[in-house]
């Protein structure tokens, strides 16, 4: 057998050229959302993809099976809002029995989630990240442009009755919800939850400008603000690949965390990849996509051919989010939406 016909060696773990393993897939099951959060999209929404352009559940299952064979152990379902896609629970049931996947998690805005919480627990979903930027109903409406806080809180209460790990994700926005940081953090006093504060990112679908000059609330200021009320925050050890800096507050049952999503302080140990709802592979939140997986899946590519394409994509992964941003032809990230990227 000559070199031209020699098959490539088997791949048991995906690594990028910086030596980082790829173990965590964020899988967007839809680009649609039932909220209109101003930091994610304009009031009129974004142009959603036709159904036929979205990956089917069968295509997602094939890809997750391949990735699980390449060392991916954790899959987090995102959107848009995952629960606006029909038959999501059936998909999770099939995903839960895939070999090698040890962690299935979910990010949701909670509007439609509460009735499904018992089934999520039964299927072994490990964690749910609940997007909740305020506990005030009027501010919730102003931020999301929808009056949906009560069902979101119903979801929170339903989750707390299970063994599912609960994390609240709150985007910190100057002039919008700063008064909510302390009340949200107070939830961790009596509840076994993580309350995580996220720097606002530029992916807002063109809703408004997003530049460093317009980000006065970075991770340092968020911590300072919390410490002015709670006293010194005690840093906790960070697992490899973690995006949040977690802290303990004296006397609190839960924890608080800060995610430097715009400052990008955690890139050095990033172990995640993203698949958009239309099948675009992103090796960094800030890149423009590195591989059209949908074209491979629908073009008749074999499992081996897809595996090789995935491995090749990671050989040119940006070292960090700043490098990925610089490699884009147009530095206008705010014309993208987190709904299309996968939250």
From TrEMBL:
Cross-referenced Pfam families, in alphabetical order? Mob_synth_C, Radical_SAM
List the pathway annotation. Answer: Cofactor biosynthesis; molybdopterin biosynthesis
> Its Gene Ontology molecular function terms?
GTP 3',8'-cyclase activity
Tell me the cofactors it needs.
[4Fe-4S] cluster
Q: Which residues form the Radical SAM core domain?
A: 17-237
Write the Enzyme Commission number(s) for this entry.
Answer: 4.1.99.22
Query: Which reaction equation describes what this protein catalyses?
Result: GTP + AH2 + S-adenosyl-L-methionine = (8S)-3',8-cyclo-7,8-dihydroguanosine 5'-triphosphate + 5'-deoxyadenosine + L-methionine + A + H(+)
Residues annotated for GTP binding in this entry = 26, 76, 107, 167, 272-274
* Residues involved in [4Fe-4S] cluster 1 binding: 33, 37, 40
How does the cofactor bind to this protein, according to its record?
Binds 2 [4Fe-4S] clusters. Binds 1 [4Fe-4S] cluster coordinated with 3 cysteines and an exchangeable S-adenosyl-L-methionine and 1 [4Fe-4S] cluster coordinated with 3 cysteines and the GTP-derived substrate.
Task: Kindly list the positions annotated as binding [4Fe-4S] cluster 2.
Answer: 267, 270, 284
UniProt keyword annotations, A-Z: 4Fe-4S, GTP-binding, Iron, Iron-sulfur, Lyase, Metal-binding, Molybdenum cofactor biosynthesis, Nucleotide-binding, S-adenosyl-L-methionine
Residues annotated as binding S-adenosyl-L-methionine are 39, 80, 131, 201
Q: Which InterPro entries does the protein's record reference? A: Aldolase_TIM, Elp3/MiaA/NifB-like_rSAM, MoaA, MoaA-like, MoaA_NifB_PqqE_Fe-S-bd_CS, MoaA_twitch, MoCo_biosynth_MoaA/MoaC, rSAM
Q: What does the protein in this record do?
A: Catalyzes the cyclization of GTP to (8S)-3',8-cyclo-7,8-dihydroguanosine 5'-triphosphate.
- HAMAP family of this UniProt entry? MoaA_B
Listed under subunit, the entry gives: Monomer and homodimer.
Belongs to which family?
A: Belongs to the radical SAM superfamily. MoaA family.
Kindly provide the name given to this protein in its UniProt entry: GTP 3',8-cyclase
Organism the protein comes from: Hymenobacter aranciens
